[in-house]
Design a protein that fits this description.
globular, 17 strands, 5-stranded mixed beta sheet, single chain, DUF4438_N, mainly beta, TM_1086_SG_dom, tm1086 (SG structure) fold, Thrombin, subunit H, DUF4438_C, 6-stranded antiparallel beta barrel, 2 domains
Length: 268
């Protein structure tokens, strides 16, 4: 059964941002965990060839952000983009042809997956129909919902199980020891980097064990956080492909089912 929610009480705000160009500094190189220097593409701009359902790792990249990387040059407006956009929100690029896509997640920028990415360039403006923060599951009060468009919820492998728990199909279970950058930050901002994960796809639904993301991100035994992988390869120590948080709460509130096909691609 699809979980009941308060979706009818949520507001929609139209936010405007622009595709951020890739940024660098005059030194160019970074250094990986083994002390090896590297110079690779990754954050910012329009990244072609990697979409929902594609491998998150194995690319010659660092801090890979698939699709469009969207920001606002005004810091306060940029924070609104980070905090208020949700996975699944509709995005319209404000250029001729008006390509449309969906928010894939948050990282340094808001990440957008769309079919016509090659028609978009840095500096192009986009409009995002932001809706989802404040979403609650009425029959699962212990479960916190974060960064989830309510229209996406019925299309995800999420349901109320016969025993009353929230059943969620996940492509991978991640131990807390793999959690890297992102710990300590609020779960509505950026994502959680996972160290040592090489078998994930963009859009995979994963569960982070012993993680509580209700009021920030941190280790708490007996809790879990479930998210969708939104970023790919990272070469810096403590970084890696990572999920944007969607659901979190006591592990006892969930019925987790292993399913390697659990991916946003089936819901797009």
């Amino acid at each position: 059964m699809i979980p009941r929610s308060n979706a009818d009480r949520l507001l929609t705000q139209v936010l405007v941002g622009e595709v951020c160009p890739p940024l660098g500094d005059r030194f160019g190189y970074r250094v990986d965990a083994e002390g090896r220097p590297f110079l690779l593409p990754g954050m910012g701009g329009v990244t072609l060839g990697v979409r929902v359902g594609d491998p998150a790792t194995g690319h010659a990249a660092d801090h890979l952000e698939p699709g469009l990387s969207v920001w606002h040059p005004d810091p306060a407006a940029n924070h609104a983009l980070q905090y208020l956009t949700c996975v699944g929100n509709e995005v319209t690029v404000l250029v001729e042809g008006r390509p449309r896509g969906r928010v894939l997640g948050q990282h340094a920028y808001v990440l957008v997956d769309l079919d016509d990415a090659a028609a978009v360039a840095p500096g192009d403006r986009v409009a995002i129909r932001a809706r989802g923060q404040g979403l609650r599951l009425l029959d699962h009060p212990e479960v916190g919902v974060r960064n989830l468009d309510p229209d996406l919820l019925p299309r995800l492998p999420v349901e109320t199980a016969p025993d009353g728990r929230l059943r969620v199909r996940v492509a991978a279970r991640v131990p807390s020891s793999a959690v890297g950058a992102g710990a300590g930050m609020v779960s509505e901002f950026a994502n959680t980097d996972l160290m040592g994960r090489v078998d994930l796809r963009i859009g995979d639904l994963v569960v982070l064990l012993d993680q509580d993301h209700r009021f920030g991100r941190g280790h708490r035994a007996g809790y879990v956080a479930i998210g969708a992988i939104s970023t790919g390869d990272c070469r810096l120590f403590g970084h890696g492909p990572g999920p944007s948080t969607l659901l979190t709460g006591p592990a006892a509130a969930f019925d987790l089912v292993d399913d390697p096909t659990a991916n946003l691609g089936a819901a797009w």
